Write the structure tokens for this entry.
Amino acid sequence: MISREFLKGEIDKIQDGYLEVLYRIVKALINPSTVAIMPQNVQVSDWHIFVEQTYGSLSDDPITRGDQGQFEIREIIE
């Protein structure tokens, strides 16, 4: 079994670029309801803002595909 002291020592070996990911994993293991919370220092792109604002906007009038229709029969290419 892995001890807390061993795990803490291993954390010191992790590159700084992975600390945010590790933190989110630890938080998810402590309290699964915190997974969706975005850390304050993360920059949100315009694309993410657009998706948040428009997600579900067509739920009252969903997009449907009409009938395929008839296509003309063309000559066979040999």
Observations:
- The two ends are 70 Å apart (CA to CA).
- The mean pLDDT is 81.
- Helices lie at 4-11, 19-30, 46-54.
